[in-house]
Amino acid sequence: MLANLPATIRAGESISEAVDCTGGRVLRITIPENYDEHDTPVMTFQSSANGVDFFDLVNDQGMQLSITARRSTTIHVGQAWTHALGWIKMRAGSKANAREQSEDVTIMVSITPSTSVVFGGGGAYTGETAPEGVADGSIWWNSADGPSAAKRLYVKYFDGNSSQWVAAEQ
Fold first, then answer.
1. Do 28 and 16 contact (CB within 8 A), yes or no?
2. pLDDT tens readout for residues 130-169
3. Contacts from 115-119 at CB under 8 Å and sequence distance 24+?
4. pLDDT per residue over 90-101, tens digit each?
5. What domains can be seen in the chain, in order of their start residue?
6. Contacts of 146 (CB under 8 A, 6+ apart)
7. In the chain, is it the N or the C terminus that has fewer CB atoms within a 10 Å radius of its CB?
8. Where does residue 133 fall: left (phi above 0), alpha (psi -120 to 50 degrees), or beta otherwise?
9. 139-142/124-127 β-pairing
């Protein structure tokens, strides 16, 4: 089953909001009818390991990775770079030649959910609040005192649509 994750490029912008792809591998990107194509219809990307710090996605020679992006199409992206992206942003055009959108455009990113318990190297965390920006499969020991959350183990779980912390014991 695919998880379809929306990424919106706001009007007047050329790059989308971040999409959390830590729960699987990008399989396809669907471009809506209202997408303003660039003269050379490319889409480039930024990626992040933590959901905060984003960098242009390039190959081992420093060239921006790109796909051909035309409105009203679905693009199969089976390249190796789609396997472990973490968080991703889509850019209409290239970094040097971006295309601002005339209205909000919602691109759908379809990922195949990971079947492994730990995707991309989950970690173990302890604290009174849930850690942010961690991989699915991570565990967190809630050390807070209190009747409902005190001393409880949680697992960051991706259900095919979103990631959330789920109590490991009841």
1. no
2. 887 777 777 888 877 666 556 678 888 777 777 888 887 6
3. 119/22, 119/23, 119/24, 119/158
4. 999 999 999 999
5. 3-113 (2.60.120), 124-167 (no CATH)
6. none
7. C
8. left
9. parallel
